[in-house]
Amino acid sequence: MGSFGFHCASCDLPMLSDGPDRHDACFKCEECFGDGDDLGGCKSTNYLMSPDGEVFEEKNYEGYGVYGGKDAYALLAQTNVEAVREWRNDPEWEPSGDNDEDRGAGIDLAMASRKKTHEEIRMMLLEGITITENNIYHYAKDLIKNPLRIVCETCYTGESYKGAITGYDQMEVYEYSRGHKDQSWTSANDSDVGWVCDGCYGW
Q1: What is the pTM of this model?
Q2: Residues 139-191: tens digit of each pLDDT
Q3: Which one of 65, 165, 173, 180 has the fewest CB atoms closer than 10 angstroms to its CB?
Q4: What distance in Å separates the CA atoms of residue 68 and residue 33, rounded to the nearest whole number?
Q5: DSSP strand E in 76-186: where?
């Protein structure tokens, strides 16, 4: 499985496994990378929130969905049991509590889709619904009641304008962590003498 990450559920900036630490400063202008608009280009401590109140702290995210020893997709399945049962059409499904065993169910919830049946499409047409690429599929994500909520250090410690977010239920109903695949993205540039911000690079 390739390296991937998530956006902060609060500020929506991408949280990365590559790049300077948020406390590092550009060696030319000496501006701290975490102080500017490009915080998403920095590494920081991240926090995976659970609806049951548990918080999994990850100080050195490696890019494979695990925060403080907890797989994010396994947690998604474990906290959305009814959604997994409905999607799999298996009313007896139960999470094992194990990262490896539950991860697949969580990935399905986040990403799986299937085409609607001919009968379902016919009923849509009879109801006057225009068939589009977006509504011809069922998406497992529509069944999720407890979305992934992973926040960056800035939002968790209250350094952003929203204040500290230290619990799952402190967030707005629709705030969740979108995935992103490019773990190498950063606004900073690595050099022989240290990290350089984008503005100073090339001087």
Answers
A1: 0.85
A2: 999 999 999 999 999 889 888 777 899 999 987 765 889 888 776 677 788 88
A3: 173
A4: 24
A5: 113-115, 137-139, 149-152, 179-180
Q: Which residue has the higher pLDDT, 138 or 3?
A: 138
Residue-number span of the structural domain to which 103 is assigned: 5-112+144-196
pLDDT tens figures, 60-97: 998 899 999 999 999 999 999 999 999 999 999 999 99
**DSSP type of residue 25:** B
- Identify the H or E element spanning 78: helix 72-78
Do the domain assignments include residue 162? yes
- Give the pairing type, strands 189-191 and 179-180: unpaired
What count of other Cβ atoms lies within 10 Å of the Cβ of residue 23?
13
Q: From the DSSP assignment, how many helices (H) and strands (E) are in the chain? A: 5, 12
Concatenated DSSP letters of 36-53: STTGGGSB--EEEE-TTS
Beta strand residue intervals within 80-132, DSSP E: 113-115
Number of domains in the chain: 1
Q: Cα separations (Å) of 56 from 107, 137, 190?
A: 19, 34, 29
> Whole-angstrom Cα distance, residue 120 to residue 35?
51
| Burial of 162 from C-beta contacts in 10 A (0-12 / 13-18 / 19+) | middle
Q: Which amino acid is at 102?
A: D
